[in-house]
Design goal:
Distance between the termini: 29 Å
Number of helices: 9
Number of strands: 7
Mean pLDDT: 93
Strand content: 15-25%
Radius of gyration: 16 Å
Strand order of the largest sheet: 1-2-3-4-5-6-7
Number of domains: 1
Length: about 180
């Protein structure tokens, strides 16, 4: 993980956010992961669901799921955090925006092994959510080849797991994705 994170962060720099996530991790394991990922500035560190870990490591932000603490409660812990919320449909997106989320992670947009039982939203439904006017990050089956369609649908950015972490050339993969996002 260390060498891949180093390559991603060195190439993506401040345009990249690394997320410490892991539903099956203990608190100590999640903390250890966050500490390891925080060693790669200028990439920003976000912690998923574990606000205690985010506070302990000085994360730039937190990412909340549907069963997480409310956005307003998280904001009271650190007013400087960027607070994101995972959403899977327009109703969840509207609720997250009303609660004060700074950004939405919307997905899965395409089929993904991470959520095998979840029907993908597709670019059209992503567009409905993006029209709410809050930055949307598309996730789920994201590849460099799909970024143009995601941008056309209104995505502010993308989140990728396998396309970056499993790439033969992680630095090249992040370069291609950033080029697609900025063209």
């Amino acid at each position: 993980m260390g060498e891949i994170a180093r390559q991603l962060a060195a190439t993506g720099a401040a345009d990249l956010a690394l997320h410490a996530r892991g539903r099956g991790l203990s608190g100590l394991e999640h903390f250890d992961l966050a500490i390891r990922l925080s060693a790669y500035p200028p990439a920003r560190l976000f912690v998923n669901d574990r606000l205690d870990v985010a506070l302990a490591v000085g994360a730039a932000g937190v990412h909340l799921g549907q069963a997480s603490l409310d956005v307003a409660d998280a904001r009271r812990l650190d007013e400087e955090w960027w607070i994101g919320k995972s959403v899977h449909d327009l109703a969840e997106a509207e609720a997250a925006r009303a609660a004060g989320a700074d950004y939405l992670v919307v997905g899965p947009v395409f089929l993904t092994p991470t959520h095998p039982g979840r029907e993908p939203l597709g670019p059209a439904r992503l567009n409905e959510i993006a029209r709410l006017g809050i930055p949307t990050i598309a996730i789920g089956g994201v590849t460099a080849e799909r970024i143009r369609a995601l941008k056309d649908a209104g995505a502010y950015g993308v989140a990728a797991i396998r396309a970056l972490w499993d790439a033969a050339d992680p630095a090249g993969a992040v370069t291609r994705m950033l080029q697609e996002l900025t063209e």
